[in-house]
Amino acid sequence: MDDGELRDLIKDEVGKYLPFENTEEVNFDFQILGENEFNPSQMDVILVAAKNDIITGYTEAIKDAGFSAVIMDVDSFALETMYEENYDIEENEMVVLINIGASITNINVVRGGASVFTRDFTLAGNSITEAVQQKLGIDFEEAERMKIEGPGGSESEQAEFRNSLLAYADPICSEIERSIDYFRSTYGGEYIKHVLLSGGSAMIPGIVNDLSQRLGIEAEIANPFKKIGYNKKILDPASIESIGPIAAVGIGLALRRIGDR
Predict the structure, then answer these.
(1) Do 104 and 125 form a contact (C-beta atoms < 8 A)?
(2) Per DSSP, what are the bridge partners of residue 50?
(3) 52-74, pLDDT tens digit by residue?
(4) What Cα–Cα distance (Å) separates residue 210 from each residue in 111, 149, 173, 199, 213?
(5) pTM score, two decimals?
(6) Fewest Cβ atoms nearer than 10 Å: which of 32, 67, 84, 256?
(7) Where are the beta strands (DSSP E) in 167-240?
């Protein structure tokens, strides 16, 4: 069976499960990982699907900026590329890559440098900003500024605000916990070495420790510049540390090359 025939077969099967009324509205790609380790008669396949109008929106924005899109990737896999470039990977070592962005949270469980489980959910940093907005009766922009910079005031007021941010992040952390519990129950509870957290909300005070306690796994903030060179005349170490969590997906995308799989 050639790739074209396999693509048609997968499209027919996937159409039964994708949350889209018409598979012609969807663009998808896949990669065969190999035989399933628990059932050699089956093979593991990574499948990515996105609605055509979403893809068109991105490509048109790139075109309007004077560029041409040559590669399109998924946040979770961009994180994987960033991880592979910056961290030493041991055979069968399992880590969880979590990116809490503005509007979506990405989870990618990677074993030995290959993705074995992914999940995205639309509960992320904006929900924390909205909670601050509603609590204080301010506009979204001001709430976002306060989330990042703090409220000012006395030390006790700032500490109280930081604690409130962690409370507002509880629904996100709970959903992450449920996702990892599901993975463990489905994949036999394999040992997970550590969690790498990225995205703007990774910088919320206490969230790394909170996730570590919930999951029972050592957690830390990802460093996408760990083995990536940068111009130290433009960016100092403090700046790199502050933008690192936000830059994780972007670094992964920048590391992609035409023809990569």
Answers:
(1) no
(2) 27
(3) 888 899 899 999 999 988 888 88
(4) 23, 21, 8, 16, 5
(5) 0.83
(6) 67
(7) 194-198, 218-221
